């Protein structure tokens, strides 16, 4: 007499039967939670460092500018949060990705039965959360230091998210595709370029004409434009072109980061 043994249903098979959207949301939440716990030892330090960077940018640029007029003060106050978001994306993200490659945790993540897009979105969300405290404190420090009035518009959040997502995606692609030493060097060169040779904290007219033309098609100046218009709409305006260029770069950066993640799998 044979004995019927019921097939065990593994949690993975049960989860696979769920609708795709709730399953993806749950996977994203779990992966974000795992990433935050994995980086928990360093999260406070990362937040402190990027907050200090935001405040130092405000104070340092103020010392370089000397006597700051209201117009220059608005440039400096609105440039600090932009530089903070870009720095987290283009410097901290590739360095963390390189570390994950070196220690093998990135390869281990690829063995999990999860879509690569979930990995990417969870990573990008974590870096966006890390950038938020310094961004807010940078705005407050700029308003206090230069005695300027800033306004919180409704498009400040989408502007900040677009800047953060674009920067983090570019940094993720750099950290995934390039050799570790080269990725470190590229990130250092990029932040040097962002802080000194990009019209974020000063008007674009101060650059040579050829540099102005180049920056019109790169994502950095549109990032500064949308942030200025979001924080000081009474003094700065932006047009649809800046949003379109930045959105185009964001789409390309996210797709590029996804391709880079799949390429090594």
TrEMBL record:
One term of GO molecular function: ABC-type transporter activity
Keyword Transmembrane carried by entry: yes
InterPro entries named in the record: ABC2_TM, Nod_factor_ABC_transporter
GO cellular component, one term: membrane
Source lineage: Bacteria, Bacillati, Actinomycetota, Actinomycetes, Propionibacteriales
Keyword Transmembrane helix recorded: yes
Subcellular location: Membrane
Coiled coil residues, start to end: none
Chief location of this protein within or outside the cell: membrane
Matches recorded under Pfam families: ABC2_membrane (PF01061)
Domain of life: Bacteria
Transmembrane segments: 42-66, 72-92, 118-146, 152-174, 242-261
Topology within the bilayer: Multi-pass membrane protein
Alphabetic keyword roster: Membrane, Transmembrane, Transmembrane helix
PANTHER family referenced in this protein's UniProt entry, alphabetically: NODULATION PROTEIN J
Source organism of the structure: Propionicimonas paludicola
ABC-2 type transporter transmembrane domain span: 31-230
Entry protein name: ABC-2 type transport system permease protein
């Amino acid at each position: 007499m044979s004995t019927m043994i019921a097939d065990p249903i593994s949690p993975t098979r049960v989860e696979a039967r769920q609708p795709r959207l709730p399953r993806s949301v749950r996977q994203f939440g779990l992966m974000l939670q795992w990433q935050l716990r994995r980086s928990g030892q360093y999260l406070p330090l990362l937040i402190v460092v990027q907050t200090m960077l935001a405040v130092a940018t405000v104070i340092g640029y103020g010392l370089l500018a000397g006597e700051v007029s209201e117009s220059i003060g608005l440039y400096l106050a609105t440039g600090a949060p932009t530089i903070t978001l870009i720095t987290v994306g283009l410097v901290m993200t590739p360095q963390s990705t390189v570390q994950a490659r070196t220690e093998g945790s990135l390869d281990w993540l690829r063995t999990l039965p999860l879509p690569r897009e979930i990995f990417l979105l969870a990573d990008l969300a974590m870096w966006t959360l890390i950038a938020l405290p310094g961004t807010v404190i940078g705005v407050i420090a700029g308003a206090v230091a230069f005695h300027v009035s800033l306004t919180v518009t409704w498009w400040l959040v989408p502007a900040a998210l677009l800047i953060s997502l674009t920067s983090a995606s570019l940094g993720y692609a750099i950290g995934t595709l390039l050799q570790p030493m080269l990725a470190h060097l590229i990130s250092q060169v990029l932040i040097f370029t962002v802080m000194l040779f990009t019209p974020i904290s000063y008007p674009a007219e101060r650059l040579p004409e050829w540099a102005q033309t180049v920056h019109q098609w790169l994502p950095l100046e549109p990032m500064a434009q949308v942030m200025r218009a979001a924080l000081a709409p009474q003094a700065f305006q932006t047009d649809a072109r800046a949003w379109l260029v930045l959105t185009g770069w964001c789409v390309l950066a996210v797709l590029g980061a996804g391709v880079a993640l799949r390429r090594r799998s």
